[in-house]
Design a protein that fits this description.
Blueprint lengths: L3 H28 L36 H7 L2 H7 L37 H5 L7 H9 L1 H4 L13 H13 L2
Length: 174
Amino acid sequence: MFDTMTMTKATGAVCGALLVLMLGGWAASALYDTTPHGGGHGEEVAQAYTIDTGAAAASDEPEEAVDYVALMAAADPAKGEKVFNKCKACHKLDGVDGTGPHLNGVVERPIASVGGFGYSTTMAEHAGTPWTVENLDHFLRAPKSFAANTKMSFAGLPKQDERINLIAYLATIQ
């Protein structure tokens, strides 16, 4: 049953299969090379481009103090009412909670104080602290930076005049 010819065929088949695997590996590495340009032999490779995500690196300069009293004095509640249109989908001004808590009387109201509304854990950690103009401005600029896991998916209002006008409008709603 196992004669010389059978052993030669079996050895030839194994050697042929190994040869096909080696040639396939060589062809694949020639087509799909993942080593850095230059073979990766100590050459420094520079990144071709950088995608700006808008998250600027923290600067060493201290943040300039904002005079909220002067900003509120110059604020226009009518313009703030127009900015509130961005909030209407989730917030109401009639004392009824929507997707978000109602916002009547929000200025100087304690954070996370609307009864029956399910606040996120980081928002609940701020409970007892009032919604001052400064806190509202910080929250409205970037809600996730104020409370990391807030349920509010709104990205924020980047323009300070829009935020101040909105706060002035909300201050008129009781």
